[in-house]
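for the recovery benchmark. tokens below, seq after
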């Protein structure tokens, strides 16, 4: 009986950590189809909406490093329980938010809780699955939940928005968290921590400030909404803080996080794959949500349903990719996943979603499968290359790459769409200068303005906005294709000399 329990316990723990990882993954994208609703209900501007979406991934990217160190110090079970409690309370606060500022703050707290949960889940897998083959299958399931949860976010958000009030997208997290905490308390084994592992919150805040300043500066610099005298100093301060953080960690005898892990060639490749895959996947979903609702008139639920092939393919690819990594090696799966993702984006950039839905669905299924495979390959690379005693730190690095990629995906795709939309739109004659600037800033602003003008002018503006956005989305998808194809080539050569290590490479 004890032997049977010893065999079943890792898989039972995997079920628990996957269950708590589901809302964490979904919350990264659940608001993508909710931007029109939030704009109306909370009176949020387009820039505020981007921060509501983006703050979760950006705060999480900065906090996973210290939380990974905290996990090494107190053990993954304690970290999982603490993070789950904070995530549940923050979900409740977000569901009851009376305004945009409250919601941004609640999303920030959600990110802190998520930053505790994810390294704990990866550390549990790395610790409890000693067999490489079983660990790769477990990581495949974990990766499928991550990519599938992020992919299903828009569909879940659309369903809840169509049937309940907007806060329900956060309220559904609470019962899941309560079940997870109960199961974790009684069924997950206690891990021996390392009390000497330092956790320096000052350094964590330094990293978060650096990330937020850099992202803010890049957004405003590319959008041109602030003078260079404001943007460039903010960018310089952010870069200086990031440099200072890295130098401080390298100089410490017992750093909060082992920055030297980034110097490992396989780990670095895994980080780059995770970042680029999430940039393209999250950016694609955000762009598609706007394309389908503004250009083709879909409801939030219908827009989420149209993207179902991405979600289904992402959900089933993880376990398959885990087996492929074990049998074919990391290099083939990683480069192949990036290559197929690039080809799918190239096809989507030339696809008319209204007249070619079957072609769009086939390409989206290919995208979901290939991106999830690349994400699994990056996870396997990082976790296999890291020593067991640094499992939480390696999990934190992996999660940082995921979340920073998600945040950058929203920022970069949003900016690319905004700039290309402004350049492509042909405004109707006779619009006053303030109205012209409003209409050219984004498709959301243009469609809102079209409803306020006379029928003929409004129809002309709406048609021009739809045409400009379609051109912009083709440009964005083409750029993503070039990026992914280039990364596939780089990964293939970077891992050319990698030898098989524990069956992972």
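predicted aa per position
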């Amino acid at each position: 009986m004890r032997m049977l329990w010893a065999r079943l316990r890792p898989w039972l723990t995997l079920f628990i950590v996957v269950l708590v990882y589901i809302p964490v993954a979904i919350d990264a994208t659940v608001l993508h189809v909710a931007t029109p609703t939030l704009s109306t209900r909370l009176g949020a501007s387009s820039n505020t909406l981007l921060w509501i979406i983006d703050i979760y991934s950006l705060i999480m990217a900065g906090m996973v490093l210290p939380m990974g160190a905290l996990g090494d110090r107190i053990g993954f079970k304690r970290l999982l329980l603490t993070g789950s409690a904070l995530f549940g309370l923050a979900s409740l606060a977000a569901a009851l938010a009376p305004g945009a500022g409250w919601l941004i703050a609640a999303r920030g707290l959600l990110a802190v809780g998520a930053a505790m949960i994810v390294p704990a889940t990866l550390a549990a897998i790395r610790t409890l699955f000693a067999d490489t083959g079983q660990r790769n299958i477990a990581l495949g399931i974990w990766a499928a939940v991550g990519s599938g949860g992020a992919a299903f976010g828009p569909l879940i958000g659309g369903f809840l928005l169509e049937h309940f009030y907007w806060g329900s997208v956060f309220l559904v997290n609470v019962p899941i968290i309560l079940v997870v905490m109960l199961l974790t308390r009684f069924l997950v084994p206690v891990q021996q921590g390392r009390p000497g592992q330092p956790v320096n919150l000052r350094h964590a805040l330094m990293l978060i400030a650096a990330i937020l300043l850099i992202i803010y500066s890049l957004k405003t610099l590319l959008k041109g909404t602030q003078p260079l005298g404001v943007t460039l100093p903010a960018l310089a301060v952010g870069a200086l803080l990031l440099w200072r953080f890295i130098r401080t960690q390298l100089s410490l005898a017992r750093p909060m996080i082992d920055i030297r892990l980034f110097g490992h060639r396989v780990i670095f490749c895994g980080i780059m794959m995770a970042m680029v895959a999430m940039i393209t996947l999250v950016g694609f979903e955000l762009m598609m949500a706007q394309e389908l609702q503004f250009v083709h008139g879909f409801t939030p639920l219908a827009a989420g349903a149209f993207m179902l092939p991405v979600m289904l393919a992402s959900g089933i690819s993880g376990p398959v990719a885990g087996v492929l990594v074990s049998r074919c090696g990391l290099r083939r799966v990683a480069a192949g996943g990036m290559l197929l993702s690039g080809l799918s984006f190239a096809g989507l950039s030339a696809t008319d979603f209204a007249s070619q839905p079957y072609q769009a669905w086939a390409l989206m299924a290919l995208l979901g499968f290939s991106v999830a495979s690349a994400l699994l390959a990056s996870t396997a690379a990082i976790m296999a290359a890291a020593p067991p005693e640094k499992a939480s730190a390696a999990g934190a690095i992996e999660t940082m790459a995921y979340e920073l990629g998600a945040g950058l995906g929203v920022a970069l795709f949003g900016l690319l769409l905004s700039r290309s939309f402004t350049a492509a739109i042909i405004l109707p004659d006779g619009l006053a200068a303030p109205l012209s600037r409003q209409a050219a800033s984004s498709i959301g602003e243009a469609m809102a303005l079209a409803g306020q003008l006379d029928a003929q002018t409004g129809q002309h503006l709406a048609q021009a906005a739809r045409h400009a956005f379609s051109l912009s989305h083709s440009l964005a998808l083409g750029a993503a294709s070039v990026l992914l194809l280039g990364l596939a080539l780089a990964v293939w050569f970077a891992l050319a000399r990698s030898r098989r290590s524990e069956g992972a490479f």
